[in-house]
Amino acid sequence: MLFWGILFPILCSASVFQQNDPVPELTSTRQEAIAYMDKIPALEPSPHWPNIKPHLFLQNIRSNIDQPISIYPGNGTNFCGYGALTYLYLKDDPLGYAKLLMQLYLDGKATTGNVILDPSPAVKNAAGMLKFKGILDIHPAEQMWFLTLAGHYKGYLNIFNRKYDPGDENRFWASCNYAKFNRMVRQLLHYKTKAKGADLMRPRMDDLYGYIEERIRTGTVVLFINNRIVHKKDHVKIKLQVPTHFIVAERISKTAEGITLVYWDYGGKTLMQLSPAFFKRIVFGITYCTKKEPDAN
Amino acid sequence: MPIKLIKFILSVAVAGSIFSCSPKNISTNYYYENEKVLDSIEESYKKLSSHHPFTVGFTARDFKTITLELITDTLTYMYEFAVNEPRLADTLTKFHLNAPNVIGLIRQMQSIRCTWIKNFYYYVDERKDSMIFMSIKPVALKRPFAYAKYYVLSYFPQPQYFDREGRLLDKRRLRTLRKINGEIFRRINSKVCYTISGNFR
Fold first, then answer.
1. How many other CB atoms sit within 10 Å of the CB of residue B113?
2. Separation of alpha carbons B106 and A181, rounded Å
3. Which of A7, A237, A272 faces B78 most closely, judged by CB atoms?
4. Is A270–B76 a contact, with Cβ atoms under 8 angstroms apart?
5. pLDDT tens figures, A212-246
6. Which of A281, B128, B141, B143 has the fewest CB atoms found within 10 Å of its own CB?
7. Please, what is the end-to-end C-alpha distance for chain A in angstroms?
8. Are A212 and A17 in contact (CB under 8 A)?
9. Shortest Cα distance, chain B CAs vs residue A56, angstroms
10. Is the ipTM of this complex over 0.95?
11. What is the pTM of this model?
């Protein structure tokens, strides 16, 4: 059995998770980001982003700062890697996120560190136009940001589809392999990363649970998992053993019944229980992120 | 056996396997043949999930094991249970769901090979709407190596717009086709549409 239910009191008991984990220092605070956004009461339509509605754009940035958990990469898209990255960004440096997205909106391009994000005209035209993706439909700031990242960062999965055409958000143009994800985290966020695993090979370690549990206590952990067998969409028995999805591991614990994992993905947190063998089967990559420098404040 | 007879039997078998199980055939008839039970599943799910949001489906081929997702404000709990397992009722009760009615719904789904049911949210003119998404794995769509294995129904709370070919539209004026999970849906009646898909959710 992949995961199984256990009694509710066990799930909710304080002993399952350690509550006194150290709180990592942040690059900027949510209050700073809110104060920055409060200085921008309204926006004019941007000539660079013809299909973005300014009021929705502002609303979207504000709601993301307020509720990073609500980041939603869209139904049926290949934006999950960019979604996980944005979730980390918002939790660590919401002010940096707000400034970068405002710069991108107003100037049509943006610079952060050594990275110059200069999206193509096709990407600029598509932002605000994505439809049938759930709440992403009315989140133009996320559309702009995900499309910009997918257009800028390229990995081997994007070799045959490098130029954006409508619908490419669901295709290999937007795909994110493991090395590309780690590169984005290193370049855009204030994190040092240590990656274990690969696109086609699981990490070799004796105690996978112990390794992840220890890293969650001391930093931020992103897992690259095979989601085809976690969220099954068909009854096909033989499935390709490849990772397809990025999740941010929030808490993990082990009992006699198995492993309980709480993770963030797609606009919310999920609790699932799985056997150690199944856990080993699904995890292909473990990215451990720790702060590069302490809080500027 | 004369060769002509063998040829005839083989031709009938091949033609039968191609046409009798074709998605086109099943799509036109399936809903009306099973209308009562399908509508009843939709109605009870709508009522039960309005008290406490959840999704449920059969992820194993034997239709004996369910995957249950219980959605709270802070967390989605994912469980897997055997249909007869006592822990299923315990868990439903803990989440303040009407356990006998949910189990009744699950059994009804099992009887018709309904693979998944959930509330699906979509946006029109910046306004959130919802509909009920239900997939079924009919025996007739069992061709090996075929992509389309699931008959998917969408139940909208209000009448929808369709083009001349009966395809679901996003809005009447724009004439844009509405895609749900990347699929184009076709009209059954003004509120119910179907598609044939390779995925059950």
1. 16
2. 40
3. A272
4. yes
5. 999 999 999 999 999 888 888 888 877 788 999 99
6. B128
7. 49
8. no
9. 9
10. no
11. 0.87
